[in-house]
């Protein structure tokens, strides 16, 4: 590692004349950044829209910014994120953020998440009952709907089936808005229709969430769910959380909690469809541990290979491929270079996850690598799909359990096969990493008698 012994100037690749780095970043951000990380030093300086931006290209630097020197940096979140999510956990800072995180945290305690697990299996089982052998399904859409329904139900005790179409369409429109924001390359007049749709989508989400808040208020019934907890929470001066704040936290958790998980699941199905040996090992493990019984939380430690597959998917395609930018509140030294206060710091987990200094054949899907000798000796921030430090993803364990149980329930019953000749997964680097186009996979019943028995058994 040469993070601390580097020269005093960060490496600065040459961009294209006039366009600089914006054009390759807008066209192929992942490929371009991976190319830079493999050809430049530990700290990369890019000039973007006339301003310097620093990309961390070594796990030790990531640890310094997220953990060791975290108090010297703040995170802002972009304008679109703040417009949609207001002052939710992702977009707030300082004491306000700390108080909100404390208010939300109980919903993510281990014993609470353990209680959600039965619902994750149940809702996946219901989904399977709607699916049939030989059917092609739009897997990403299915995974989005399932994870959205799961988060709404277990966190807020909200059923959103009747609003599903409206909510998923609104979220898609908002995701599209993030794309246009990303590099700020389009003129305002071209963005006009997109802006209109975006405002409409924002209003739709707002209306639906506020309706649920009002319904709960009117019912006067308060359960143990997070919606009740937020509505009843009191600040130090005894005042309650405003309706706006409750709305911001609900939308933040629904948005952060379903899109990333859905993408990871889609990537998992795709990668398994392309790697029959890994798929067969997952099936063997499920058959020997579960037989035709549905999975439970207690089964997960007996399914280590399934866990390795999910880790490997998160390594190769981290949905949070780039964290929200950090900004130093004072001049700092990174990799021996002075980085002035207020500079933009970019942290891309994808770069460390694919760094050949820490991973053999980093671009290959190899779930076995997680048990190889030396796997434990990698630096902490060679793999951090959920971020790190105090802003670590609040839903990390929630997501890991939900994904493992959903994959176990589906893979017990079906293989998801890609159409013949369909190989490449095209990725879209929006605010999260997601598939660029529809991922159509065919449901193939594994063993009709055994698998359907498992499903019917639990329905009765
Ligand atoms: C595979 C699934 C997931 C991935 C890869 C993921 C990734 C991340 C990452 C990388 C961050 C840190 C962002 C940064 O530091 O800039 C983050 C933060 C966050 N995530 Fe997740 N996440 C996932 C699932 C979830 C779920 C299920 C929830 C909630 C139900 C959730 C809620 C949040 C929230 C609220 C934050 C902000 C935390 C704070 O700043 O206090 N995430 N997530």
Estimate the global geometry from the Cα principal axes. globular
Count of helical stretches: 16
Sheet with the most strands: spatial strand order: 1-2-8
**First CA to last CA: what distance?**
59 Å
**Approximate helicity band:** 40-55%
Number of strands: 12
Q: Mean of the pLDDT scores?
A: 88
Estimated share of beta-strand residues: 5-15%
From the alpha-carbon coordinates, what is the Rg to the nearest angstrom? 23 Å
CATH class of the domain at 88-320 and 385-459: Mainly Alpha
Q: Write the CATH homologous superfamily of the domain at 88-320 and 385-459.
A: Cytochrome P450
What low-confidence regions span 5 or more consecutive residues with pLDDT below 50?
1-7
* Element order: H for helix, E for strand: HHEEHEHHHEHHHHHHHEEEEHHEEEEH
| Protein structure class | mainly alpha
CATH third-tier fold name of the domain at 88-320 and 385-459: Cytochrome p450
Bound molecules: protoporphyrin IX containing FE
Largest pleated sheet: 3 strands, mixed
Report on this model:
This protein is mainly α and 460 residues long. The protein has a domain at 88-320 and 385-459: Cytochrome p450, CATH 1.10.630.10. It has 16 helices and 12 strands. A hairpin with a 2-residue loop joins strand 1 and strand 2. Residues 1-7 have low confidence and may be disordered. Bound molecules: protoporphyrin IX containing FE. Residues 75, 89-90, 101, 151, 252-253, 256-257, 260-261, 264, 319-320, 323-324, 385-387, 391, 393-395, 398-399 line the site of protoporphyrin IX containing FE. This is Cytochrome P450. Keywords: Heme, Iron, Metal-binding, Monooxygenase, Oxidoreductase. Belongs to the cytochrome P450 family.
């Amino acid at each position: 590692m040469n993070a601390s012994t580097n020269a005093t100037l960060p490496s600065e690749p040459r961009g294209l004349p006039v366009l600089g780095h914006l054009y390759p970043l807008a066209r192929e951000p992942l490929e371009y950044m991976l190319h830079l990380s493999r050809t430049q030093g530990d700290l990369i300086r890019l000039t973007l829209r006339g301003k310097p931006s620093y990309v961390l290209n070594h796990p030790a630097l990531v640890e310094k910014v997220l953990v060791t020197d975290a108090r010297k940096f703040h995170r802002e979140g972009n304008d679109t994120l703040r417009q949609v999510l207001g002052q939710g956990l992702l977009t707030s800072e300082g004491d306000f953020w700390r108080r909100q995180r404390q208010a939300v945290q109980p919903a993510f305690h281990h014993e609470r998440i353990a209680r959600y697990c039965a619902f994750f299996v149940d809702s996946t089982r219901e989904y399977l009952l709607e699916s049939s052998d030989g059917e092609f399904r739009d897997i990403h859409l299915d995974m989005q709907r399932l994870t959205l329904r799961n988060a709404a139900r277990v966190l807020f005790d909200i059923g959103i089936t009747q609003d599903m179409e409206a909510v998923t369409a609104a979220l898609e429109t908002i995701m599209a808005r993030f794309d246009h924001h990303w590099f700020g390359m389009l003129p305002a007049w071209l963005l006009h229709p997109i802006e209109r749709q975006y405002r409409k989508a924002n209003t739709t989400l707002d209306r639906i969430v506020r309706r649920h808040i009002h319904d709960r208020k009117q019912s006067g019934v308060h359960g143990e769910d997070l919606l009740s907890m937020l509505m009843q929470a009191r600040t130090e001066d005894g005042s309650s959380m405003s309706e706006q704040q409750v709305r911001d936290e609900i939308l933040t958790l629904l948005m952060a909690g379903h899109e990333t998980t859905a993408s990871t699941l889609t990537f998992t199905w795709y990668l398994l469809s392309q790697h029959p040996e890994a798929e067969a090992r997952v099936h063997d493990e499920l058959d020997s541990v579960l037989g035709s019984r549905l999975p439970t939380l207690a089964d997960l430690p007996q399914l280590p290979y399934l866990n390795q597959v999910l880790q490997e998917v998160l390594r190769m395609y981290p949905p949070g491929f780039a964290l929200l930018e950090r900004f130093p509140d004072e001049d700092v030294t990174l990799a021996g270079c002075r980085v002035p206060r207020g500079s933009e710091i970019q942290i891309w987990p994808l770069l460390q996850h694919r760094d050949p200094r820490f991973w053999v054949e980093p671009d290959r899907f190899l779930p076995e690598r997680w048990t190889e000798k030396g796997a434990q000796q990698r630096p902490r921030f060679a793999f951090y799909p959920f971020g790190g430090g105090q802003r670590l993803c609040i839903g990390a364990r929630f997501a890991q359990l939900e994904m493992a149980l959903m994959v176990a329930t589906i893979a017990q019953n079906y293989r998801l096969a890609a159409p013949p000749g369909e190989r490449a997964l095209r990725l879209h680097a929006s605010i999260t990493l997601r598939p660029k186009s529809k991922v159509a996979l065919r449901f193939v019943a594994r063993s009709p008698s055994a698998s359907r028995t498992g499903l019917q058994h639990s329905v009765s």
